[in-house]
TrEMBL record:
Belongs to the amino acid/polyamine transporter 2 family. Amino acid/auxin permease (AAAP) (TC 2.A.18.2) subfamily. The keyword Transmembrane helix applies. It is found in: Cell membrane. The chain crosses the membrane at residues 34-53, 59-84, 119-140, 160-177, 184-209, 236-254, 274-296, 316-343, 378-395, 401-423, 435-461. The keyword Thylakoid does not apply. GO terms for biological process: amino acid transport. Keywords: Amino-acid transport, Cell membrane, Membrane, Symport, Transmembrane, Transmembrane helix, Transport. PANTHER family: OS05G0424000 PROTEIN-RELATED. This is Amino acid permease 6 isoform X1. It comes from Coffea arabica (Arabian coffee).
Length: 474
């Protein structure tokens, strides 16, 4: 058997039974592992804004919007599962990444557009994670201040110190080659995300059980003295962007499917895994959004654990924010490493003779470990982290950042490319009934994404009128 230029054969000492047809070690993933990976990928920091999003949309539109995004994501995940192999969904050649799937099924300009969407999304997420982590670090300090001084106001702290601290940590971690491939990282991320999400859910239940009766509405926070009808409209669209961000995980589905063993067919297993993973996540999202709205009503904070809907028990609020910070410290690297790898690979091809770019020095570490050090990697990766720090200082608003990220990634990566790839692979005839309703679905999602993006950009600009860049406080 030949794959990637390597021949595996019994005569040469290799056992074909240990390798798949593409020459890689045989995949061992199952329905259970794939479902767990999907749940881990879905449930993240986006859950913290769902109570606020529900407060903007109300008792009817809030749950309906979450269910609609869930169904759309599940449907397009099914389409994406059939595109993992090409040209045939069962016996065709494997495509190991989202970009490879787009290249195999669409090719041409759409591959470049996919690259722009993917890498733009990764850059945005690293900025968003920088903002979110800093806010969580500040929240720990504020929570302790509230507890010691027995007040529910004041205790404001600058975000910038914690943004810089987060950046320094990322500068160090970014020098570790293949940091994102550490298996322990995924385990820690899963534990941390479930921990802080569960704490937020539990505190909401406790708030309701304690007799909280906040004002709620079928249509969400009403326009009035504190908010104009125009503000209400834009906040509604921004809330849709926040929900979209919570479901923006399609780019990792191909990598998850690539872990599945060949029998039964990967696409069949992946479809069941997508249903299980998205269903479990949606139930969790519904609980967080609805119970958070029940607990705090129309004044639900933008971030459930840092907007200080909760003040006590302060140690539990601190624990939740520590979990957020730990989760996002590693998650930043998961999303930044593909950016690092792309630029470094491109630079080596562009300047193959450059000593600065291509030189690698071995450094002996305690314990007999050896790490490769590259001057170019140090300069480039440090520069990128500084860039994310600077942007995070300029745009420190949690909800608007999440809304913009959700709007920018949901339509192209979750809806457009899966639909277009499925149409191409299944050879669906243009202007047929199936083609028409798929295009309508794509257009509706595009419209929602554009409105959500406009609302988030408006929110960022609006906050710049009251916030001084590089001097933001929480």
């Amino acid at each position: 058997m030949q794959a990637n230029g390597t021949i595996f054969s019994v005569e040469r000492g290799y056992d074909d039974s240990k390798f798949d047809e593409d020459g890689r070690v045989k995949r061992t993933g199952t329905l259970t592992t794939a479902s767990a990976h999907i749940i881990t990928a879905v449930i993240g920091s986006g859950v913290l804004s769902l109570a606020w999003a529900t407060a903007q949309l109300g008792w009817i539109a809030g749950p309906v919007a979450m269910m609609a995004f869930s169904c759309i994501t599940w449907f397009t995940s099914i389409l994406l599962a059939d595109c993992y192999r090409s040209p045939d969904s069962v016996t065709g050649r494997r495509n190991r990444t989202y970009m490879e799937v787009v290249r195999a099924n669409l090719g041409g300009l759409k591959v470049q557009l996919c690259g722009i969407a993917q890498y733009g999304n990764l850059v945005g997420i690293t900025i968003g994670y920088t903002v979110t982590t800093a806010i969580s670090m500040v929240a720990i300090k504020r929570s302790d201040c509230f507890h010691e001084n027995h007040v529910r106001d004041g205790c404001h702290t600058s975000n910038n110190f914690f943004i810089i601290l987060f950046g320094l940590i990322q500068v160090i971690l970014s020098q570790i080659p293949n940091f994102h491939k550490l298996s322990l990282l995924s385990i820690i991320a899963a534990v941390m995300s479930f921990c802080y999400s569960s704490i937020g859910l539990g505190l909401s239940v406790a708030q309701i059980a304690g007799g909280a009766h906040p004002q709620t509405s079928l249509t969400g926070k009403p326009a009035g003295k504190s908010m104009t009808a125009m503000d209400k409209m834009w906040d509604t669209f921004s809330a849709l962007g926040d929900i979209a961000f919570a479901y923006a995980f399609s780019t990792v589905l191909v990598e998850i499917q690539d872990t599945l063993k060949s029998t039964p067919p990967e696409n069949q297993v992946m479809k069941r895994a997508a249903f299980i993973g998205i269903s479990v996540s949606t139930v969790f999202y519904m609980l967080c959004g609805v119970l958070g709205y029940s607990a705090f009503g129309n004044d639900s904070p933008g971030n459930l654990l840092t907007g200080f809907g909760f003040y006590e028990p302060f140690w539990l609020v601190d624990l939740a924010n520590v979990c957020i910070a730990v989760h996002l410290v590693g998650a930043y690297q998961v999303f930044a490493q593909p950016i690092f790898a792309f630029v470094e690979s491109w630079s080596k091809k562009k300047w193959p003779e450059s000593t600065f770019i291509n030189r690698e020095n071995s450094i002996d570490l305690p314990g007999g470990c050896v790490m490769n050090f590259s001057p170019f990697r140090l300069v480039w990766r440090t520069s990128y982290v500084i860039f994310t720090i600077v942007v995070a200082m300029i745009f420190p608003n949690f909800n608007d950042v999440l809304g913009l990220l959700g709007a920018a990634s949901f339509w192209p990566l979750t809806v457009f490319f899966p639909i277009e790839m499925y149409i191409a692979q299944a050879k669906i005839r243009k202007f047929s009934f199936t083609w028409i309703w798929m295009q309508i679905l794509s257009f509706v999602c595009l419209s929602i994404s554009l409105l959500a993006a406009a609302a988030s950009i408006r929110g960022l600009i609006k906050h710049l009128d009251t916030l001084k860049p590089f001097k933001s406080e929480s």
